[in-house]
């Protein structure tokens, strides 16, 4: 045995530094190319095919989004007109002797802060004024009332300015003064002053986050307006949870006042499946004859939508977008969606074709059906371009599933009047040949049983043109694990920080990023990462001093010192503290200086860890020990 | 002095007549009117002063004045307006009532104002009635005292003297000023029969178009008398069943009456319209319970049946599946002692040795109904969530490798749902404003009742009561 090997074997501890190959990342970095896609087949893919993949993706994406935009627009418009109509019907509802003492109330279920209200236009004899109130406007009832009156008067001023007829009218100074009292008297003075009735629509945004006692007092206060002629108050309550929870917080007398003339609108676009069906359908139409969806992918969409309360449509769009993008990003065969690109087909593409499961199945059936031997072999070896021809044949083959889906939807909606089906679920069952199971929910479907008969066919090479979630990329990309991601990124900061090449490019353009920063970055990782690598190896309680010493040791001290010294000597760096820093450097020797620097960095890193939520100090004890916050696999 | 006709309040009127007079010599400076809500205080006062117009008076509902500055300014404005109306010849427009920003300035203003009327021959009283002063939550402790000192601080030589009548409903208000020796008139609650009479005086019911239409539809004698008979029966039923619920408050009863009227009219038909017992029976639901909700029960059940066919997660104002489990986890974290977590939630009890493995340290009985929620850190809630959340691994498909783990790890989805819970205030952070969301000391607390969590747990088939002992349903 050699001496070196022997010495190595006698060592008690080994330092192993995992090699991170920066070059392997840089090889994907196609520098000047404006296209963010990378060359597949280990970089063997030609530039043109990357470009055409990129173009194809953009075209499909644009197609999908134009149709989605129209759908989303129509949703918005529908919601707005719906609210406006309801308010109209509420305020135009004449008050009889019995209903005189009641507010008009509109409950918007499942609305969020962005929900816009449009109020009906003013009529001959009354003004409609909308007042938006946010929880922060209502710290107490006095300010809340003030805010309401202020906003009301403000919008009245706007109205009068835009209206040429009444612009000349001057108000009595006395009256104007009383109006500025921000008192209930304003409501009494309204009709005599403005000569019209008032419909005051108070939109309480995020109603649940109001201080309930303030809100109640305010509603109680507004009861005084019920007795004033010519004023109608309409409350718009925006609820995100449910009505029961909200009304539990209210007094009975308030509930009584609100409940007589009350309407509800369910705004959640997720209520029912109408909109998600529309969007999913438009996606299917968009990728029709091009891409298929795997059952696993559809199942994934279904599950994730189930776990989301309010943002269902956005989530669906996000998943579809992401899956489309990731498909084009990592599947080299995606260029063949456009048959015109068939001239790109060459050896490297054909090589993998023979490994497709569907193709193998096909060959198996050929063998079973005793097809001639030459045919099979020529297909497998691509003699006389048979395989190529075969592939092209199947490219133009159509999957009947989308047409069938249209048929079924047509039957459901037009013949059976069923609208509350979930298209995605329906599609999922179709892919699994269990359509009948899904439709058995509705008895009326029995009549059309034979129409619903559907067999999903396997097309050869289908898996090359399928949106799938088989590698977990979607789950990982769209729903990353918080903690694991955090830890991974802290360990390998190279993954998320810009690469050195990029930094260099930025440094050339931008004075902000200085040479010093760049060089320092090459020497050490960001400080929090440096701390984290040590943190990972420690026990759950860490002695701060030990931690600090370890941190100090882990730094490449002399290199840093040299770097700083050389930089401070030059005039490249211009800071206000330069003189000071130089003085400090001169006064201290290397060890001392590095000690101090390490301490500063260490405190910084420790605090950052604390804010990220992986470390905590103990409350009642001295700061000798910090505790790890460990989330074992949470 | 003219005596108004206010039924059942004769005694109180006697006192009013005795204490209220236009002559300053014959009347005390302050008068208290005490009585619970709905005992006719405002009504009687209004009637009284309407009948005796020669006594100058201003009635201000104190609740609407909100705080002391606006009270003073409002009072000053009203005083000047009233005097301007009574004595148009006297010039008062140069006095600015908006200067009266607090009680002291108000007193200055009043003195300046009253001095202008010194040419009057006779001394007169001006009554200011502050109605329901204790309903005003924003008024501080001193303002009423300062206001009470107001009549005494008017210059004695002024020909107009200020008199104050303060009405209030809480007797605790009176005890604050018991040493003031203010004459007090007490208005007791009405008796049931009296309430029935008062409620039946509400206009608009017997000639309600809805009732007229229904009566025409049924096609029996549509006379005024018959309609009012039906109305009287309706009132009788309601009062019999709900008078205790409202605390003998006629105004609340009238409100309830209006809300239930539509339902009642709709239920009228040929059989029950002449049969009192039948009429009561067919509307048992209406008269049995107050049933005061924002959305009536009937339309609510319609909604449920609609969303019942779809999956639970799709109706937005209910929570989605994951959010429900998170809420349950938060509830358990709030109400269970963290010391027993490993015993309650861990499935690996065999790994632990000693006493904890066989559970000698048994849980004390706890019933969440009577406890306050305690704060917990987020990671504890997520750990509990992980242990109770059923990950749905579909058998038919080969699960992707993230699903192979049977535990739900906290991914973005989970966090989205947590934030959803926080925005809807089902989950609240203690000291959130001070600490911020990321702080390691931030603790959370669940903000739902036991009944609510039972509903939520029931909807996902999770037996939450098994985690608590001593829960009696």
UniProtKB/TrEMBL annotation, chain A:
Any one GO BP annotation for this protein: DNA replication initiation
Domain of life per record: Eukaryota
Gene Ontology molecular functions: DNA replication origin binding
Record-linked InterPro entries: ORC3, ORC3_N, ORC_WH_C
PANTHER family listed in its UniProt record: ORIGIN RECOGNITION COMPLEX SUBUNIT 3
Family indicated by similarity: Belongs to the ORC3 family.
Name assigned to this protein: KLLA0F13002p
TrEMBL record, chain B:
Listed GO biological process terms: DNA replication initiation
Homology family: Belongs to the ORC5 family.
Species assigned in the record: Kluyveromyces lactis (strain ATCC 8585 / CBS 2359 / DSM 70799 / NBRC 1267 / NRRL Y-1140 / WM37) (Yeast)
Main location: nucleus
One Gene Ontology MF term: DNA replication origin binding
UniProt keyword terms in alphabetical order: ATP-binding, DNA replication, Nucleotide-binding, Nucleus
Domain ORC5 lid stretches: 232-287
Domain Orc1-like AAA ATPase: 8-152
Domain of life per record: Eukaryota
Location in the cell: Nucleus
Transmembrane segments: none
Domain annotation Origin recognition complex subunit 5 C-terminal: ranges: 319-468
UniProt-listed Pfam families: AAA_16, ORC5_C, ORC5_lid
Name used for this protein in its record: KLLA0C02607p
A GO CC term attached to the entry: nuclear origin of replication recognition complex
Gene3D superfamilies, sorted: 1.10.8.60, P-loop containing nucleotide triphosphate hydrolases
InterPro entries: AAA_16, ORC5, ORC5_C, ORC5_lid, P-loop_NTPase
């Amino acid at each position: 045995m050699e001496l070196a090997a022997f010495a190595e074997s006698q060592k008690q501890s080994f330092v192993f530094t995992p090699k991170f190959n920066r070059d392997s990342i840089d090889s994907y970095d196609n520098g000047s190319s404006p296209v963010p896609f990378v060359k597949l087949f280990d970089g063997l893919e030609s530039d043109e095919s990357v470009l055409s993949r990129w173009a194809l993706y953009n075209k499909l994406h644009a197609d999908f989004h134009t149709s989605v935009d129209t759908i989303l627009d129509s949703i918005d418009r529908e919601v707005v007109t719906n609210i406006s109509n309801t308010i109209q019907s509420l305020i135009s509802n004449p008050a009889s002797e019995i209903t005189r003492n009641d507010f008009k109330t509109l409950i918007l279920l499942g609305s969020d802060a962005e929900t816009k209200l449009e109020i009906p236009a003013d009529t001959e004899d009354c003004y409609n004024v909308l007042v938006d109130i946010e929880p922060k406007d209502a710290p107490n009832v006095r300010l809340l009332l003030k805010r309401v009156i202020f906003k009301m008067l403000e919008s009245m001023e706007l109205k009068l300015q835009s209206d040429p007829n009444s612009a000349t009218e001057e108000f009595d100074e006395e009256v104007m003064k009383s109006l500025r009292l921000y008192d209930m008297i304003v409501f009494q003075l309204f009709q005599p002053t403005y000569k019209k009735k008032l419909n005051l629509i108070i939109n309480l945004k995020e109603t649940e986050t109001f201080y309930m006692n303030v809100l109640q007092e305010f509603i109680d206060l507004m009861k005084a307006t019920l007795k004033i002629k010519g004023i109608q108050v309409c409350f718009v309550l925006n609820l995100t949870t449910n009505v029961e929870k909200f009304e539990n917080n209210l007094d009975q007398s308030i509930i009584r006042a609100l409940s007589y003339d009350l309407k509800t609108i369910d705004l959640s676009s997720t209520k029912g499946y109408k909109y998600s069906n529309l969007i999913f359908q438009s996606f299917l139409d968009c990728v029709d004859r091009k891409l298929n969806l795997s059952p696993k992918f559809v199942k994934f969409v279904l599950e994730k939508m189930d776990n989301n309360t309010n943002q269902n449509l956005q989530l669906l769009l996000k998943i579809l977008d992401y899956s489309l993008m990731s498909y084009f990003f990592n599947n080299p065969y995606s260029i063949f969606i456009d048959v015109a690109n068939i001239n790109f087909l060459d050896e490297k593409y054909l090589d993998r074709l023979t490994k497709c499961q569907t193709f193998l199945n096909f060959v198996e059936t050929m063998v079973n059906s005793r097809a001639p031997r030459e045919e099979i072999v020529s297909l497998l070896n691509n003699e006389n371009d048979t395989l190529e021809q075969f592939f092209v044949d199947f490219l133009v083959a159509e999957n009947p599933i989308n047409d069938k889906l249209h048929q079924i939807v047509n039957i459901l909606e037009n013949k059976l009047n069923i609208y509350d089906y979930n298209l995605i679920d329906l599609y999922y069952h179709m892919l699994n040949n269990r359509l009948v199971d899904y439709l058995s929910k509705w008895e009326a479907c029995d009549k059309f049983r034979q129409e619903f008969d559907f067999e999903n066919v396997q097309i050869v090479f289908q898996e090359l043109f399928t949106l799938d979630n088989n590698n977990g990329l979607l789950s990982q990309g769209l729903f990353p694990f918080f903690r694991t991601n955090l830890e991974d990124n802290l360990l390998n900061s190279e993954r998320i920080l810009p690469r050195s090449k990029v930094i260099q490019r930025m440094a050339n353009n931008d004075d902000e990023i200085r040479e010093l920063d760049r060089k320092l970055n090459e020497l050490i990782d960001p400080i929090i990462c440096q701390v984290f690598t040590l943190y990972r190896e420690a026990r759950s309680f860490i002695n701060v001093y030990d931690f600090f010493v370890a941190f100090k040791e882990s730094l490449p001290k002399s290199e840093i010192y040299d770097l700083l010294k050389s930089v401070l000597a030059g005039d490249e760096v211009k800071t206000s503290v330069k003189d000071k820093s130089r003085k400090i450097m001169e006064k201290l020797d290397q060890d001392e200086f590095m000690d101090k620097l390490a301490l500063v960095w260490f405190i910084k890193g420790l605090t950052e860890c604390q804010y990220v939520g992986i470390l905590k100090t103990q409350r009642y004890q001295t700061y000798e020990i910090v505790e790890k916050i460990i989330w074992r696999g949470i | 002095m003219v005596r108004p006709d206010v039924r059942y309040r004769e005694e109180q009127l006697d006192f009013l007549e005795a204490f209220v007079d236009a002559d300053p010599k014959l009347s005390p400076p302050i008068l208290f009117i005490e009585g619970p809500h709905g005992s006719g205080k405002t009504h009687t006062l209004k009637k009284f002063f309407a009948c005796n117009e020669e006594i100058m008076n201003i009635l201000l509902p104190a609740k609407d004045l909100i705080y002391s500055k606006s009270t003073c300014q409002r009072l000053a404005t009203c005083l000047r307006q009233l005097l301007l109306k009574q004595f148009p010849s006297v010039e008062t427009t140069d006095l600015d009532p908006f200067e009266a920003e607090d009680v002291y300035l108000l007193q200055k203003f009043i003195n300046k104002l009253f001095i202008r009327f010194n040419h009057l021959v006779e001394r007169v009283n001006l009554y200011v009635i502050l109605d329901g002063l204790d309903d005003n939550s924003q008024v501080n402790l001193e303002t009423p005292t300062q206001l009470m000192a107001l009549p005494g601080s008017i210059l004695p030589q002024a020909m107009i003297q200020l008199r104050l009548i303060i009405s209030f409903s809480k007797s605790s208000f009176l005890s604050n000023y018991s040493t003031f020796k203010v004459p007090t008139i007490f208005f007791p609650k009405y008796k049931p029969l009296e309430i029935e009479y008062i409620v039946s005086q509400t206009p608009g019911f017997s000639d309600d178009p809805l009732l007229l239409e229904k009566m025409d539809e049924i096609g029996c004698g549509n006379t005024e008398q018959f309609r009012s008979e039906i109305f009287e029966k309706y009132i009788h039923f309601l009062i019999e069943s709900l008078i205790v619920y409202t605390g003998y408050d006629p105004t609340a009863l009238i409100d309830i009456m209006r809300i239930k009227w539509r339902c009642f009219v709709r239920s009228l038909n040929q059989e029950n319209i002449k049969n009192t017992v039948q009429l009561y029976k067919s509307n048992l639901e209406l008269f049995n319970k107050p049933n005061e909700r924002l959305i009536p029960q009937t339309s609510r059940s319609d909604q449920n049946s609609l969303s019942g066919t779809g999956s639970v997660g799709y109706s937005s104002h209910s929570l989605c599946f994951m959010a429900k489990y998170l809420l349950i986890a938060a509830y358990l974290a709030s109400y269970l002692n963290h010391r027993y977590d490993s015993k309650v939630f861990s499935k690996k009890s065999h790994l632990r040795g000693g006493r904890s493995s066989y559970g000698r340290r048994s849980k004390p009985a706890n019933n969440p109904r009577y406890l306050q929620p305690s704060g917990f850190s987020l990671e504890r809630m997520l750990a509990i969530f992980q242990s109770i959340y059923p990950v749905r691994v579909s058998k038919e498909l080969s699960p992707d490798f993230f699903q192979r783990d049977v535990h739900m790890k906290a991914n973005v989805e989970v966090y989205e749902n947590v934030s959803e819970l926080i925005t809807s205030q089902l989950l609240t952070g203690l000291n959130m404003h001070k600490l911020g969301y990321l702080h390691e000391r931030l603790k959370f607390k669940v903000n739902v009742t036991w009944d609510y969590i039972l509903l939520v747990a029931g909807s996902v088939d999770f037996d939450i009561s098994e985690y608590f002992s001593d829960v009696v349903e």
